[in-house]
Amino acid sequence: MNTIFAENALIGGEWASNTRLTIEHGKVLSIEREAIPAATDERHRLIVPGMANLHSHAFQRAMAGLTEVRGSTSDSFWSWRTLMYKFALSMTPDDIEAVAAQLYMEMLEAGFTRVGEFHYLHHDRDGRHYANIAEQAERIGAASATTGIGLTLLPVFYARSGFGGTAPTEGQRRFINSVESFSLLMEECRKIISALPGGQLGIAPHSLRAATPEELRDVLPMAGGGPIHIHIAEQTKEVEDCIAWSGARPVEWLLANMPVDERWCLIHATHMTDAETRDMARRGAIAGLCPVTEANLGDGIFPAPAFLEDGGHFGVGSDSNISISVAHELRQLEYSQRLGLRSRNVVALPQQSTGTRLFQEALKGGARALQSQDDIVEGASADFVSLDLGAAPYLSADQVLDQWIFADTIKVDCVWAAGKKLVTGGLHGSRETIVPRFQAVMAALLDAG
């Protein structure tokens, strides 16, 4: 048992002063407000709940910064995807584990305490199943255990290359499952998750491009009570192709044909009509936004004002993992709205700070999407973050979130996940073993490329 004293702690959406948090067996045993610190308390200026990173493709961390070269014709998401496929075909299970551990370490250092791993690199490099069909998922689980980050594993069902049941391409061979083999994969993933403290399991039909309606209906029950995540309406070409196939836009088709509710997380959902946006909000589906990746890939701008006006909820993820930062994801989300609408403080409510609204909405939406908690609560997992105010000791608690997200003056200091202090002074405790392994893997991958 250990006790942490915070001069300010964000609890229940409000700032609590002089708070003592007692941790036992990975959970918050008690919360004492307006307390007097004991001599043995670990003391911090300010503590906030840990953030959920609701959408990650771990293997793509190995590509970060390596696709920023213009091709012979204009580049787009689709040309980037071709390069991504080429890279994905080269990685071994050992490579995956090393890259995922580096990534999850970086997430913890950034203030993310749980990750939703949208995991679709399933099979061997020739497309054949490993003897253990969940070999790659085991490596994701191992990276979670090594670093201590909470894991919501989202095995991806991927069977087709385009709308209407088009056969998969050669470049997709490591992703592909039948409904039957995906069922076997899910059985093994349940075993992996059961061995991880606080582990959660859901499913991720990759997209409407990657599964027929019949296949989609067949795999949905495999989620049990877990979350359901799906890529949707990320690119205008996807919208055009969906209309050509079905006569409906992607989000329109999904809402009309599938039981979309609060368990669903619609990743990107960028290109929607006003009616789709409001219908999605009213159904309770979470918008899984990845603002840095969406900007990097030239996806477009999510229609945040209409979505929020109708009670919609969103969370953030790092997707292609080109940048790992709670602050940068939230900042890019707000700045995209400002650029599109030529306005300021778009996401904030009247007389409310933008940083506060962004952070608290992302906490709630991300936790719902990954089936974790969004607050510091007695009896819940002890997942929280202390912020270093050394560069700006003059700030009030109300000003800290704006400074962290928009000004780069505030840094993450310490991070606890499941009660374990994993990050101190902004650095993960296992950096000395994780980083060299990652660097060796990267050197080998680039030499072979």
From TrEMBL:
SUPFAM superfamilies: Composite domain of metallo-dependent hydrolases (SSF51338), Metallo-dependent hydrolases (SSF51556). Its cofactor is Zn(2+). Keywords: Hydrolase, Metal-binding, Zinc. GO terms for molecular function: deaminase activity; metal ion binding. It holds the Pfam family HutF_N. Residues 1-44 form the Formimidoylglutamate deiminase N-terminal domain. Gene3D superfamilies: Metal-dependent hydrolases, Urease, subunit C, domain 1. GO terms for cellular component: cytosol. Residues 47-420 form the Amidohydrolase-related domain. Transmembrane segments: none annotated. NCBIfam families: hutF, PRK09229.1-4, PRK09229.1-5. This is Formiminoglutamate deiminase. The lineage of its organism: Bacteria, Pseudomonadati, Pseudomonadota, Alphaproteobacteria, Hyphomicrobiales.
